[in-house]
Every structure is written in C-alpha cells, then in structure tokens.
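Collaboration report, partner site 2.

Our partner group contributed sequences for two proteins of shared interest, and the home lab folded both. The records are reproduced in the order in which they were received, starting with the first partner submission.
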Amino acid sequence: MASSDAQVVHNFPPYFQILKNGTVKRFFNDSFFPPTGDTPNTDGVLTRDVVVSSDPKVGARLFLPKLPDPTRKLPLLVYIHGGAFSIGSAFIQLFTSYVSSLVTSANVIAVSIEYRLAPENPIPACYEDSWEVLKWVGSHGSGQGSDPWLNQHADFGRVFLAGDSAGANIAQNMAVRVGSEGPGMKISGMVLVHPFFGNEEVSPMWKVICPDTSGYDDPRYNPAANPGLMSKIGCGKVLVCTAGNDNLKDRGWSYYEALKKSEWGGEVEMFETEGEGHVFHVFHQTCEKAVVLRKKIAAYLNN
C-alpha cells in the first residue's frame, strides 16, 4: 500500500477511521460470539441466530428465557444495539450478555437486530435492515411464521421496541414508520436508552455516515425539531432514559419535552441515572446503577 493510500482522511475515535483508499479501520473489537444452541447460558436463556434477508444479508439473534409454563405467552422485545451506527453487533458478547440479562429480568422473548454498519453502508441502511426484521417479526402474529419460538411463545399483544444510543435512534425511526405503515403488528411501547439524537450542531461524523443529511433539523438526527413527525409514533407509551454525565442527554430531554407537547397522545416517561456516562449500563452491566436501570426497564415491559 502506497503511503498516500494509507493517509487518514476521516478519524472518529473510538469508532472508526477512513483511509484515502477507502479502507475502514474500526477501533472496537467486535468478534463473533456464538449462540447457545440447545444448551442454555448461565441465566437459563437459549439463543440462536436467524437470517431474515439474504440480499442484503440481514439477521437477528433470538433469546428465549426459561419457560416454567410453556403455554404462557410472554412479551416480545425487539432490541436494537448501539455503537454510533458504525460499530457493534447483535452477535458479540457485549450485546448478547446485555439482552440476555434483560430477557431474564423481564421474562420476555427478545429479537436482537443485526443491521449493516456505516460508513460502508451509510444511513439509511440501518433503518431499512431494522424494518425488514420488524416485518419478519410481524409475520408471526398469526402463529404461522417461520420461527417456532415466536409462534409458540410470543404475545403479539405486548410487543416493545428498545435500543441504546444509535439503537435508540433507530428504534425511534422505526416507531414513526410503524405509525405510518405498520409491520403487521402493533407496538405497545418503546424504550430509548441514552438516545443518539446528536448535540447542538451537526457532527462531522454524522455527515460522513449520513451523506444525504439535511443538516441540524434532519428528522432522523433531531426528531424533537419535527413535532409533526413525532405525532406519528406508532405506540402508546415511551420510556426515555438518560445519564447525568452523558453529553447527549440534552437532546434526550428535548425529545421527551417535544413528545409531551406533540399531538401524539401517548404516555411518555423520563428516567435519569445520575453520575453516569453514555451507555454505562452496557459496559458495566453488573454495577449497582446498571442493575437499577435494568429493573426499571423490566418493570416497564411488564406493566
């Protein structure tokens, strides 16, 4: 490789850099973590992977908790991982362990979405992939879908969307699309944890991963600036979670206030963890405040 080709043209630690020749180098180790197969993990949760679409390739990791009563239907959580749209995966240990802990705490079935990452796949690829998974999940509402876990154990009267950081951003965009198009099922509620709605300016990284952005008020980037769009959210309740030391928390609060004032008509609740930073609960899953947050979300999914 010529030295000029190795020149860094975009550098966004701790996420990625782009070299002059187009090569993307990530700063995050996201090696594959295998599903459990037929042997439950230490929480008693079974996991396995499914392919939802082959072109483009879109998948998901499914989570099934212990079933003391196999005839009882459980709430269904569709989870979208964070990582600034550019790192992370539903198939790594970090997010597998976190979703597994939610599944155990809330006693729910979960579908964790695997979407294509920017910058190789710019926004809206992550939105389109997540929508494909939502439609696939919705195809099980009659009990005649391709996946036996969802057919037999999921309560399609209690379906929730959730995500952290960029995943929360994607969840918000999916909720708007649910309200406009509907994926074949109703969404009961949504949990947005430390949502990535930007800061008070358009960041250079956002311009790279979303090259067609309209700027500061892009509804995908700053939904609070688009109250008409927010009124289309296709669920009845929303929980917004922020962290006191997170530099993205102001937009989380702006979203909460804008949703309250919009014509949406649902119930919105705010929960802030003091003294913690962005997505602390994912990187420090067993700390006291992460456990409190997880219990809050679990109670919300079962209320």
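Second partner submission, folded after the first:
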Amino acid sequence: MDSIILKTATRYLYPVLIGLSLVVLYRGHNLPGGGFIGGLIAASAVMLRALAGGWEGIGEGRFRNPITLMQVGLILACASAFVGLFVTHTFMEALWAPTWYVPVLGKVKLGTPILFDIGVYLTVLGFAVLCAKSLDSNNN
C-alpha cells in the first residue's frame, strides 16, 4: 500500500499513540490493566507504522525478534513478583519507593507493581508484533 495520506497521518499518530501507551502504562500501576492496555496501544502504533511503510520503515532492528521482547517482559514480570518474597516473605507483595516530585509530572510513585506492568507491556507488545509479522505475506 502506497498512500501519502496514510504515511502522513502515521507520522503524526505514531508518537501520540506511543505517548498514550506510556501514560496508560504508568497509570496502571495504581489501577488494573495498565500494562496490558498500554501494550496493545503500542502494538497498534507499531502495526499502523508497518502498514504505512512496511516493516523496514519502523526500524527492523527493534522488532527483528519479538520473542526476545516477550522473554524480557516475562522475566521482568516474574522478577517483580519474587522481590516481595525475598524482602517480606510474601509472594507478589507490592513494595514502594519513596514518592518523588518531578517538575513536569508531579508526584511519582515507583514500586514493584510498575515493574510488573512494564513486563506485561513488553510481553503484549512482543506477542502482538509477532502475530502481525506472521500474518504479513511479504515478511520472511
């Protein structure tokens, strides 16, 4: 597909979708679903860019092997679950760092739930990209 309108729209929509996925990811460590929904939004941005310019147009090196992205995500999610086991002897216990104040963002809370959500985010992103690449008839 060689559409100037799609390529132009993608140039503006891609950073907006990636930014939205990161906002949803950060929001999710206090509320359920942030990593999963954020990963789906990021995957839709990647697929939109691949639709507009092909897989070569999105930086093939980043998504050459989505299975590696899934592995890193699963390891991170599992590691965040075991942190509480080693510190408080409770599996999947949420541990929080002191609240920081960042001038642009305001109060920022970091802890093991955000690590879990990042792991889910990477796993969902890798799986969606793997599925999309497997459906592409031009992709080897």
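Feedback sent to the partner group on the second submission included the following. The mean pLDDT is 84. The beta strands are 100-102, 106-108.
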